[in-house]
Write a structure and sequence with these properties.
alpha/beta; 5-stranded antiparallel β-sheet
Length: 401
């Protein structure tokens, strides 16, 4: 029996409420051996109080040693095995901006970037342009026409956009053209099979035209493509857990993840305080709430250790407001680690707190990687976090006689 089948069999509805607060890329590393991580360096009195009232541990998003993308990391937190459900980032970005992805579509995440006179990437994110600039450039690229397919180019945020290629017989087994490095040229898209090569040829044609069109743009003069994906069929959150879930996420991709699993998308505003205010306004109408905070990840990717510490402290500030709503289960974790030292996602297990009246509390008194290693949850696969949440909320009955 699968985990999802077991939860469907055991689930019970008792009106309890669960809050999942995801600090993207929460886990980190010390800059020097023997030092403190970003989380351990931050002043977090409210998270420390939550630890003392709950139980903590370290979650592994996929498998030991595997650095996950944001898609697999979040799907695991939602209780979906990321090795079984491989969801391409392009679909998540498209769903995040409410683009209706059809069965003939391949959705792709695009990044605007800056290349030098030799075509070598200088900045993978084109200096993080404003969203207004992103919109203007996307409107320019909408003039590109490629024989044999319809193209849809939609802005997302800052340097990100969505490219949707629509045609019959497309595949999505295509490599990323982003080499995820500077000083090298973007990669050529190649398909692993005939339908995917058709997609790759169309994507390469789009990139050639985009390079011509953007050649004189300041900062943004090229694009790379990532996460080629068709829309999968996936069981919904409601179907598995029986929960009426609301997602409060500012960044489109994370709204896309929530929409993919059937969560309702709420108005998250533009700040963490806006999200918490929306949480209070919607409290009576839902029994599961997913809040996403991006900036612990983006500061880590930028290698900005002090900036990530500041973002963690900003997260700490809203903890009392959430606790004031008296959730039956309050979870705080990340979808993966993004150490400033590595400037990218890593394989390191992620600090996690579970607070509920039914907790078997541990002796941990501070929220940090080293401390969570001694926590009562131990080290566990993130895909089991939802069954733990359901159990602590009194929503799972007994298995067997």
């Amino acid at each position: 029996m699968s985990l999802h089948s077991l939860i469907r069999e055991l689930r019970e509805n008792n009106g309890s409420k669960i809050v999942l607060l995801v600090a993207d890329g929460l886990g980190g590393l010390p800059m020097e051996i023997g030092g403190k991580t970003e989380l351990e360096s931050a002043h977090t009195p409210n998270l420390d109080d939550l630890v003392r009232d709950g139980v903590c541990g370290l979650s592994t998003p996929v498998l030991p040693g595997i650095a996950p993308g944001s898609g697999p990391g979040h799907l695991a937190l939602f209780g979906y095995d990321p090795l079984e459900w491989r969801i391409g980032r392009g679909v998540l970005e498209a769903l995040g901006i409410n683009f209706p992805v059809s069965e003939d579509d391949v959705a792709i995440r695009g990044n605007f970037c800056t290349v030098d006179a030799n075509g070598l990437i200088k900045d993978r994110r084109a200096g993080r342009p404003s969203t207004e600039k992103c919109i203007a450039v996307c409107n320019q690229l909408k003039n590109i026409k490629i024989p044999g397919a319809e193209l849809f180019i939609e802005p997302v945020k800052e340097h990100r956009f969505v490219l949707v290629i629509r045609a019959k017989g497309l595949g999505d087994a295509v490599n990323d053209t982003d080499p995820q490095a500077v000083g090298v040229k973007p990669l050529v898209a190649k398909g692993a099979d005939g339908p995917s090569q058709k997609t790759a040829d169309l994507a390469n044609a789009f990139l050639r035209e985009a390079a011509k069109m953007l050649g004189n743009e300041a900062g943004i003069n090229m694009a790379t493509l990532r996460g080629f994906a068709k829309n999968p069929a996936i069981p919904t959150f409601k179907d598995i857990y029986g929960l009426n879930a609301l997602a409060l996420a500012v960044y489109p991709m994370y709204r896309g993840l929530a929409r993919l699993v059937g969560m309702q998308i709420g108005d998250a505003g533009s700040t963490l305080n806006d999200q918490v205010e929306s949480l209070g306004n919607a409290w009576k109408d839902h029994d599961f709430f997913f809040l996403h905070f991006k900036y612990t990840d983006s500061t880590g990717e930028d290698g900005n250790f002090p900036g990530k510490v500041e973002m963690i402290e900003r997260l700490d500030d809203v903890i009392p407001k959430i606790r004031a709503l008296k959730p039956d289960v309050f979870l705080v974790t990340g979808d993966h680690s993004t150490p400033s030292k590595l400037k990218g996602h890593s394989w390191h297990p992620v600090p996690t707190i579970l607070q509920a009246a039914s907790c078997r509390t541990d002796r941990v008194s501070e929220f940090g990687e080293s401390q969570c290693l001694a926590g009562g949850l131990g080290q566990f696969e993130a895909k089991y976090l939802m069954s733990l949440a359901m159990a602590h909320a009194g929503r799972l009955g007994k298995y067997g006689a």
